[in-house]
Design a protein that fits this description.
homodimer; mainly alpha; Tetracycline Repressor, domain 2; 2 domains; 10 helices; about 70% helix; elongated; AcrR family transcriptional regulator (chains A, B); Tet_transcr_reg_TetR-rel_C_sf (chains A, B)
């Protein structure tokens, strides 16, 4: 659920004028797709509806994307990218200061900020809700929007294992869920408030365990 | 997400014949509500639609429930209750054998079984998905369907604190999320497979911590 960044290639190579027009259309399509999924919900969002709202032909959309799921996921990735305008494609990395607790807390605080950002809230919820009942879309959301972040957790936790800060027998893919899943559930299912203090607590509890040492 | 049980009062007090008719109507209404929310989704499920499918008058539904959310949640609780036919209203309790690890593993294995039960899958997903985008419904789902289970975790973790098996400074409301949230996210968002081995691992990691002791 952390800020996902992805180096999405600009669609196609064009001469400057054409590129400007393309960029304008692409932006209009993203805006239309995000607005529609929030207003109408995922099932009622169609390529036709996105095209009409964006003021482009349906074929313009089909030239660049194969489905509404593709358009929406790319629109969402673009939204995440624009929220960190100074950041290049490689900028979203997991910090490694050598202190796993501090690094996890920093990343989770950034995730809290993102989840509270009203620009993300409605489209994120609309896509996540559909993913709950639509397994194929759900799996695409995981692969395209979540997995890149999860992989960064895995890499950082492996480094912490090498540094002796995480036990060697721990499976990082499962361990990362102590950081990601409680926050995701509070946000998705409205099971509790989210705050820096809360995510800091998750990190301390997970690293040190609930049982006495 | 564990099996929730609730002592739902039978609707009203009636003479035997009337009670039999009422029980038959109530069952038909529950079945219709669950079937419709799966087929049409929550937004398109209406009291009128439930009444028509159940073969009862709209007023019959309004006599017993104030909203479609109420009907659905009660239908869902009833489904959970019927799945354990020998169990009385008090039967859903958290085991306390004195071994917190064993008790957590047992409860989570039962939750895995429930999440894999095809009777629960579709209606649970339909309600959960709507709760993601509909905060009011989401909060009702938490209060009526989830909170009773969460309270049992809290009580059991407090007993473990008294027994010296969980550190006294731990907040049980947060700690329980290490058991409940990873499993819920894998199930809701299709982020990974669920199994007994997986939930056993969650319990071991959470109790002993990720960091070396």
């Amino acid at each position: 659920m952390a800020a996902q960044k992805s180096a999405q290639p600009a669609p196609g190579k064009h001469a400057p004028d054409s590129a400007r027009r393309s960029e304008k259309s692409r932006r209009a399509i993203y805006d239309a797709a995000l607005a529609l999924v929030v207003e109408a919900g995922y099932p009622k969002t169609t390529i036709e509806g996105i095209a009409a709202r964006a003021g482009v032909g349906k074929q313009t959309i089909y030239r660049w994307w194969s489905s509404k799921a593709d358009v929406l996921m790319e629109a969402f990735l673009d939204l995440a990218e624009r929220s960190a305008p100074d950041a290049g494609p490689e900028s979203y990395t997991f910090p490694d200061t050598g202190d796993i607790a501090a690094d996890l807390k920093l990343v989770l605080r950034a995730t809290v900020d993102e989840l509270r950002d009203p620009r993300f809230e409605a489209p994120s919820r609309a896509l996540a809700a559909e993913g709950v009942v639509n397994e194929q879309l759900g799996r695409e959301l995981v692969a395209k929007l979540m997995q890149p972040s999860l992989d960064l957790y895995i890499t950082r936790l492996r480094a912490a294992q090498e540094a002796g800060q995480v036990r060697p027998e721990i499976d990082p893919r499962i361990a990362l869920e102590f950081f990601v899943s409680p926050l995701a559930q509070r946000w998705l299912q409205h099971t509790g408030p989210i705050s820096y203090e809360y995510t800091d607590t998750l990190v301390d509890y997970a690293l040190h365990g609930l049982a006495p040492r």
